[in-house]
Design brief:
Largest sheet: none
Strand content: under 5%
Shape: elongated
CATH architecture of the domain at 1-133: Alpha Horseshoe
CATH superfamily of the domain at 1-133: Tetratricopeptide repeat domain
Helix content: over 70%
Length: 269
């Protein structure tokens, strides 16, 4: 069986999640007693139970929908609907922004049905859950690294799908975040006078994240660090790379001036 189009369209997932959350602000005002009754254990045939879960999702109650989809699997584990309900449960938790449970549901689906035709969607959903939890670069980037790994896995496993296309676009932001974290730590080391430690961070940006927006500044910081360490030849190499690749950037202008001030016997290009 296939997922509904709203759950399968990779580029509409974020919009749908936002919409269901917004609807939940009004639909979620129903009485608490009724909500509990909706998801309480009551033996129901699989068609009725699945329809109730789908109805809750359509009405903007993803948390209730997820609980009911879980009931489909629990009450009818050997039904063809159980497989479908597993993935719909994962999507419902995602729509409710309960990312850990969404990941858990999607991973359970993959462990039971690794070769299923909807496996690409499950991998993509896991990646989205990590991606939407990416925090500011001033915070720990463990989730960002998990997003990088998951998005890379989607691209590697299913390179010719829409999921891979979207994953590659999101990888640019993920790499930019990770490079930004390296820059933040490197600048902190510079301010603390730990020039060598800072250099290692800036080199990571240049070597590993050279396609990100942080590379020009990283090269300039290398010029600063190498001059502070007393190795103007290395500073000149970094300045040359900066000049060759980003000749019109403000960072090259600053590097050129710094080299003329601190190491006038060398050329910045």
């Amino acid at each position: 069986m296939t997922l509904p189009a709203s759950a399968r369209a990779s580029l509409r997932l974020v919009v749908l999640a936002a919409a269901t959350a917004a609807l939940g602000l009004t639909a979620g005002c129903a009485g608490g007693a009724k909500s509990k009754k909706d998801v309480a254990y009551v033996a129901r045939d699989v068609d009725t139970l699945y329809a109730a879960a789908k109805d809750r999702l359509d009405r903007g109650n993803p948390k209730q929908a997820a609980a009911l989809f879980d009931e489909v699997e629990r009450q009818h584990p050997y039904s063809p609907w159980a497989r479908r309900a597993q993935l719909m449960s994962a999507f419902s938790y995602y729509a409710a922004r309960d990312y850990p449970k969404s990941v858990q549901s999607a991973q359970r689906f993959l462990s039971i049905h690794p070769g299923n035709k909807d496996a690409p969607y499950a991998y993509y959903l896991i990646a989205l859950c990590y991606y939407e939890q990416i925090s500011d670069v001033t915070r720990d980037q463990k989730i960002t690294q998990q997003a990088l790994n998951a998005l890379t896995e989607v691209s590697r496993r299913y390179p010719n799908t829409d999921y891979a296309t979207d994953a590659k676009l999101k990888l640019d932001l993920v790499n930019d975040h990770l490079a930004g974290k390296e820059m933040e730590i490197g600048r902190f080391y510079q301010r603390s006078g730990k020039w060598l430690a800072g250099t290692l961070r800036f080199r990571t940006v240049v070597d590993k994240y050279q396609a990100t927006s942080h590379t020009p500044e990283a090269l300039y910081r290398l010029v600063e660090s190498y001059l502070a360490l007393g190795v103007p030849e290395e500073a000149q190499k970094a300045a040359s790379v900066l000049g060759n690749n980003y000749p019109g950037s403000e960072w090259y202008q600053k590097a050129f001036k710094l080299m003329n001030d601190k190491a006038p016997g060398t050329s910045a290009v």
